[in-house]
Amino acid sequence: VNPIYDRMGTTIFQAMNDLARQHDAINLGQGFPDDNGPQDLRQAAADALMNGWNQYPPMTGIPEVRQALARHEKRFYGLDLDWTAETLITSGATEALICAILSLIDTGDEVVMFQPMYDAYVPMVQRAGGVPRIVTLRPPQWTLNRDDLARAFGPKTKAVILNNPLNPTGKVFSPAELALIAEFVEASDAYVISDEVYEHLVYDGLRHVPFNTLPGMFERTVKISSAGKMFSLTGWKIGLITGQADLLAPVIKAHQFLTFTTPPNLQAAVAVGLDKEDGYFDGLAQRMQAGRDHLVAGFRRMGIATHDCAGTYFVNIDIGSTGFNGDDVAFCRHLTEEARVTAIPVSAFCHETPITDTARFCFCKSTATLDAALDRMERHF
Ligand code: PMP
Ligand code: GLN
């Protein structure tokens, strides 16, 4: 019998969603808002659907959304992009990631990655033949350490996968940390796949710094964003890539054989979204920050310690502070079965020497949902 290489595990999101469903738990695991997203964007998508955008659109994305993406990068970050060669629209940030990985990583190439990290990175890198070199960030502050970085970089370093703001930790890398990474990138002549899907979800008055705005980094960086996160429409799966033309050319080649195109009506609506006024983006961050504050305050009332969080949809708790005796996987199972609230064990976001005392909770939910989850946990602990 020909062997089947079933090397990829089941994603933690599938596993926890199933468990949550079985126990009718409030699901603060997988990150998605529990509202329907902006009405004007949904209307724009419906209009585009009814008025003709239903056949294959251009391979690299419809001009309207690519131009709007270039305007977005100019407005927020002062970058001047040639939309015809330096933008690409994909089917989600997920496709953007695999396009970038397949075009930049070859067999034996080492890839520096920061854990805990989004669970798709390692399987994608390994299937491309790459070798993960892991830098671990530790709670409660998730600070980046120069010595750890120096140990991860080497003569075979081909690329870095950076996720800023960082899922699952909620960490926003400081300008000094970004400069430190850039120093090593420059010295190793490496590339950066910069997953910035949470670029507009940054709190406490902090400002998002795209990695490609650091000196010398534009030519080395493939920046990836997601309309799903920008517009609270996670099911839409529209990925937004920007990068210098020569670097983007092979990424576009990967895209042509993966999906070739992305639903045009959704692209048309995202074009409208990217031109939304600053107030929309500020309001989004304010609402998410309020969700974070609400959930953190609830944990504090219960005496549960939370780790630093300045961005994303997620905040993490120290499991030890709940009095639970066991690791994160046991805790998340117990919480789902007994308190009927679902969280994600952070070890699932680790590749080696996992962090096993931390659980991730999603706060991009209505106050009513967060209160109901807090109420269940308060009764339980
Ligand atoms: N990267 C990170 C860090 C994410 O959290 C997500 C959301 N699942 C993605 C990529 C994928 O985004 P998309 O849904 O646009 O494929
Ligand atoms: N980004 C979301 C999360 O981390 C969704 C992940 C997924 O559905 N694969 O929860």
UniProtKB/TrEMBL annotation:
Pfam families: Aminotran_1_2
Cofactor: pyridoxal 5'-phosphate
Keywords linked to the UniProt accession: Aminotransferase, Pyridoxal phosphate, Transferase
Gene3D superfamilies noted in UniProt: Aspartate Aminotransferase, domain 1, Type I PLP-dependent aspartate aminotransferase-like (Major domain)
GO molecular function: transaminase activity
Domain Aminotransferase class I/classII large intervals: 24-376
Superkingdom of origin: Bacteria
Entry annotated with the keyword Transferase: yes
Keyword Transferase set for record: yes
NCBIfam families: PRK08912.1
Name of the protein: Aminotransferase
Organism: Marinibaculum pumilum
